[in-house]
Amino acid sequence: MTDDYSPERALQESVASLAPILQPGTFVYCSMLHNSDSREAMSVARAYFVEDQGVSLIIPRTEAVRLGLIFDLTLRQITLFANVPPDVIGVTRAALRTLEKRDIPANVVSAAHSDHLFVPTRRADEAVEALRQLQQRAEKSLK
Question: Which SUPFAM superfamilies match (predicted)?
């Protein structure tokens, strides 16, 4: 961060540091009852959330097929690596707006170190390119 700190500049600097990485593999969203049958699926899930209605899982497609789980859409994971100070707000929102302008749906999972976007497999390369362009525009705006 520079000495001429403003929230807008801090956001631009953070977006300029963005490095979207397309992770290997394909993933699906599945849900199932939260009982002993869900333990194996939860053990291989990329992420899961226990809801009142059951367990929602993001799981590798191969594991979902192996376990006989039902799913609709195959997704790719984009990890948003960025240098974001704790007081900066809006980096993920900027990424989502960029994808929205291209009609690319995305589901966000926030974790301790990075945010992760799950996008339809057929649009994954386009999404990564759009995010790289966002980063480049932010970088140029700082010069």
Answer: ACT-like (SSF55021)
**Hey, CA dihedral for 118, 119, 124, 129, is it positive or negative?**
negative
For range 14-27, the mean pLDDT: 96
Asked whether residue 61 is domain-assigned, the answer is yes
- 81: domain CATH number is 3.30.2130.10
Indicate whether 11 belongs to any domain. Answer: yes
The model's pLDDT over 82-133, given as tens digits with 9 standing for 90+, comes to 888 878 889 999 999 999 999 999 999 998 889 999 999 999 999 999 999 9
**Parent domain of 92:** 7-141
Q: What is the pLDDT, as a whole number, of residue 40?
A: 92
Residue 1 in domain: no
Q: Kindly give, in sequence order, each residue whose CB lies less than 8 Å from that of residue 88, ignoring residues fewer than 6 positions away.
A: 7, 10, 11, 14
How many residues belong to the chain? 143
Residue 87 in domain: yes
Residue range 132-143, pLDDT digits in tens: 999 999 999 988
Q: Per residue in 100-109, pLDDT tens?
A: 999 999 999 9
